[in-house]
Design brief:
Blueprint lengths: L2 E3 L17 H5 L9 E6 L13 E4 L12 H14 L14 E6 L14 H13 L4 E4 L1 E5 L6 H12 L3 E5 L8 E3 L6 E7 L19 E5 L3 E5 L3 E5 L2 H21 L6 H11 L17 E2 L2 H9 L57 E2 L14 E11 L3 H10 L10 H10 L8 E6 L2 E6 L6 H17 L2 E15 L5 E7 L5 E4 H14 L7 H15 L7 H11 L1 H10 L4 E9 L9 E9 L8 E9 L6 E11 L1
Parallel strand pairs: 2-4, 2-5, 3-4, 5-7, 7-9, 9-10, 10-13, 17-19
Antiparallel strand pairs: 1-12, 6-8, 6-14, 11-12, 15-16, 15-18, 16-17, 18-19, 18-20, 21-22, 22-23, 23-24
Length: 637
């Protein structure tokens, strides 16, 4: 178990390790800066702890509801945050106390003291939210054990967003003590952190793997002091507590860049940390695979970064520590007892457990067992998906069973439910209407305001069309407001929809629209339906997203703008959609946020013919995006 200390004692969490030479020099005149923002995606943080007095922390609402308590999630989140943001002279002095912090809980305490699972979809939401709120660094001291290391497509897209926005995602390697992978550490562009013992050797339970060797770094992870709820402090061990050390060092390096008049470059800091890492000494005493790329080298990274000797190419290959021929050597034993990890039902890979078969279902904390900033307005969303229904609870479902006719009282039968809702429309408000990507609910839709009844009517008609096979997609613009729990126990964000932007993709109607445009342009096409179906499928399957970022909202709106799509397909007769690129527009109206949508079409029957490019702009500053200007076309080889 972690060592709990008296709250009146002041400690330095790394003073007794001696494993970070160069830290004092990096911190000289640099204990963080308000211009650099670190997001902590973890359990709830007890911000009333004395160590956070004066810290620039902003708590963001997530799906992990609940205040900080005494459970494992709160202990973990408070500890991790304090390693970074603990204020000087307080019970815990953090490494970057003057940086700004975003606190996004992804775990919550259960009644039994354990923590609730965080799905990959929930993690994707939190990462996207952190990027949208200006994070430079995102700390994830947790992960999901995985055989392949492959992640859900939406989580991969969120991490790709980090790469595109130059945000550094730092994640724990995990504590299973094996050649195995954790998500999100296994995903490309993530900086992976393993844990060292007091002697500077890998902790026995720190994971390793081929995917970590080119982008993994080792940092102290034994007896790391941090804050605990109710004003206490404790010592804990694991990759969870090595990860915020690296996040804090990365933040200090960004601050140092800022002090030197350079633009903070998280991707460059990542390269400096990896290129400067101290490589394994292949003397046969260690299995060098367990040291990943190498050990954190603070002065080396500082020198590389400030002298401009970093290779900035995205394709930079980092030479990892060599793997020993003799892999039987063991790391030095720990000098303190390992934390005792409780059994966590439905959570993947409890730390410290023997790896016996992986049945992953959620992100878990990676312990040994995972004020500032400008406030943003409401979170806008423009979601695409299939429409579904949920009852929220068994009791609500039973109320439908009892209200339906005795010979047709199965609310799980869509046709019986439709028949009942048509006869008694006031029951439509008792359902939870969901937006689904395939079979996965990603949002709940809750109409509000004076036109709520009309919105429910639109939802009902869209659901009927979906069941009849006519409606293949729906658009739901609006704002995020609260969360809803489904019968499965899954919690999803709630969209308060803007009715004027709600549309259903009815294929026959879209084909009629396309034919009308073709007739007006005197263009004939014999494969209109096939081309339209290909266009819709490409948008939905290749570019599916949560519809939260400006780029995603612009893309989703461009797909649902039926007349504009019809015009483009009409003007590219005989061609198929090849690529779609979304990029921020260099020219935009004052106070607006605009993105250029660039679609390229090719001739599948003659690849020697020049491609046709269609380009147009979308303004996403309002809840309903709008096209700006006309569509421009040109040919391109």
């Amino acid at each position: 178990m972690p060592t709990i200390m008296d709250e009146s004692t002041t400690h330095d969490s790394l003073a007794n390790h001696g494993l970070l030479p160069g830290l004092a020099a990096l911190q000289d005149g640099n204990t963080g800066c308000a211009d650099i923002c670190i997001a902590v995606l973890d359990g709830p943080v007890d911000t009333s702890h004395p160590c956070f007095a004066g810290a620039r922390l902003q708590l963001l609402d997530t799906l992990a509801t609940g205040a900080s308590g005494s459970g494992r999630a709160s202990q973990h989140g408070t500890h991790v945050a304090s390693i970074i943001f603990g204020q000087p002279g307080s019970p815990v002095t953090g490494l970057a106390p003057h940086c700004r912090g975003l606190i996004l809980p992804i775990f919550a305490d259960r009644a039994d003291g354990a923590l609730t699972q965080c799905t990959q979809l929930d993690l994707a939401r939190a990462i996207t939210q952190a990027v949208e709120h200006g994070a430079h660094i995102i700390n994830v001291s947790g992960g999901e054990l995985s055989d392949s290391g492959a992640a859900d497509g939406l989580l991969q897209k969120a991490i790709q967003l980090c790469h595109e926005r130059n945000v550094l995602l730092i994640a724990a390697a995990g504590n299973d003590g094996c050649d195995c992978l954790h998500i999100p550490a296994s995903i490309e562009y993530t900086l992976v952190v393993g844990a060292l013992d007091r002697q500077g050797a890998p902790m026995p339970n720190s994971n390793w793997g081929a995917a970590y060797r080119a982008r993994g770094i080792m940092a102290p992870g034994t007896d790391i002091l941090g804050a605990a709820p109710a004003g206490r402090v404790r010592l804990s061990s694991g990759t969870s507590f090595a990860t915020p050390i690296v996040s804090a060092i990365a933040a200090l390096l960004l601050c140092r860049q800022h002090q030197h008049g350079d633009r903070p470059d998280p991707r460059g800091v990542c390269s400096a940390l990896l290129q400067s890492a101290t490589r394994c000494n292949t003397n046969g005493e260690l299995d060098c695979r367990r040291l990943l790329t190498g050990t954190l080298n603070v002065p080396g990274a500082t020198q590389l970064l400030l002298k401009g000797k970093i290779e900035m190419s995205d394709d930079t290959v980092i030479e990892a520590s060599p793997a020993n021929a003799d892999t039987s050597a063991q790391a030095h034993p720990l000098s303190i007892p390992m934390l005792e990890t409780p059994s966590l039902a439905n959570l993947a890979g409890p730390s410290g457990a023997t790896r016996q078969g992986i049945a992953a279902s959620g992100i878990d904390a990676s312990d040994c067992g995972c004020g500032g900033g400008s406030a943003k307005g409401p979170t806008l969303v423009y979601a695409l998906g299939n429409l579904g229904v949920d009852f929220g609870s068994e009791a609500r479902r039973d109320s439908f069973v009892q209200a339906m006719p005795s010979d047709r009282n199965n609310p799980s039968d869509p046709q019986q439910l439709i028949e009942f809702l048509r006869a008694k429309p006031y029951f439509r408000q008792s359902l939870t209407w969901t937006v689904n990507l395939d079979a996965t609910p990603i949002y709940a839709v809750v109409p509000v305001g004076p036109y709520a009844d009309l919105t429910y009517e639109l939802l009902f008609e869209a659901y009927v069309g979906t069941i009849d096979g006519l409606v293949v997609m729906n658009s739901f613009p609006g704002i995020i407001s609260g969360a809803a729990r489904l019968m499965s126990g899954q919690v999803v964000p709630v969209i308060q929809p803007a009715i004027r932007g709600m549309f259903s993709w009815n294929v026959p109607q879209l084909i009629d629209s396309l034919m009308a445009v073709q007739d007006s342009l005197d263009i004939n096409s014999s494969n209109t339906g096939a081309r339209l179906e290909n266009f819709l499928n490409r948008i939905y399957y290749d570019f599916r997203n949560l519809g939260v970022t400006g780029m995603d909202r612009a893309l989703n709106f461009s797909a649902t703008n039926a007349m504009q799509a019809a015009e483009m397909l009409a003007k590219t007769t005989g061609m198929q959609l090849d690529t779609i690129v979304v990029q921020q527009s260099p020219v935009c109206r004052p106070g607006s946020e605009c993105y250029d949508i660039i679609m390229t079409f090719f001739n599948p029957e003659n690849l020697q013919v020049a491609n046709t490019v269609a380009r147009f702009a979308v303004d996403v500053s309002d809840v309903i995006p709008v096209s700006v200007g006309a569509v421009r076309y040109w040919s391109q080889r």
